[in-house]
Design brief:
This protein is mostly helical. It has a single domain, classed as NusB-like (N-utilizing Substance Protein B Homolog, Chain A), CATH 1.10.940. About 70% of the residues lie in helices and about 0% in strands. The radius of gyration is 14 Å and the shape is globular. About 5% of the residues have low confidence.
Length: about 140
């Protein structure tokens, strides 16, 4: 599994957490069960490195969701967290978490990957929206 695939799988779990309010431990349990059973998710070999990334992202976003949303909010320009599309929110939460807490992901990579996820899963205007918000975000919060 590549980091790109681990990120996409993480996004799917973050999205479920946004929609269903599913706790991180339950999301991870379902992910590992489906990976092992080949059910819903494609059968994947999850390396230890990928497990560490996925688990830290899912648990970290759950722990810091309120803070992440507060830091994203000022860049939404005439929108609120409650009004934006859930796909865009999940994508931005993942990117913001990587920018703030994942040392081996450059901020530009986090934003580019977020835009790619928005293209794949979001509405037509989602990539531009995510790109604009997250570029403003990294100007404020990027440590790298």
């Amino acid at each position: 599994m590549s980091r790109k695939q681990a990120r996409e799988d993480s996004f799917k779990m973050v999205f479920e957490a946004v929609i269903m309010k599913t706790p991180a431990d339950e999301l991870l349990e379902m992910f590992y069960d489906t990976v092992e059973d080949g059910d819903v998710w494609e059968l994947k070999k999850v390396s230890n490195h990928d497990r560490i990334y996925i688990e830290s992202v899912i648990r970290g976003i759950e722990e810091h969701r309120e803070e992440i949303n507060e830091k994203i909010s000022p860049f939404l320009k005439n929108w609120t967290i409650e009004r934006i599309a859930r796909v865009s929110l999940a994508v931005m939460q993942l990117a913001a978490y990587e920018i703030l807490y994942v040392d081996d992901v450059p901020p530009g990579v986090a934003v580019n990957e977020a835009v790619d996820l928005a293209k794949k899963y979001g509405a037509d205007d989602a990539p531009a929206f995510v790109n604009g918000v997250m570029h403003s975000f990294i100007k404020e919060y990027s440590k790298k």
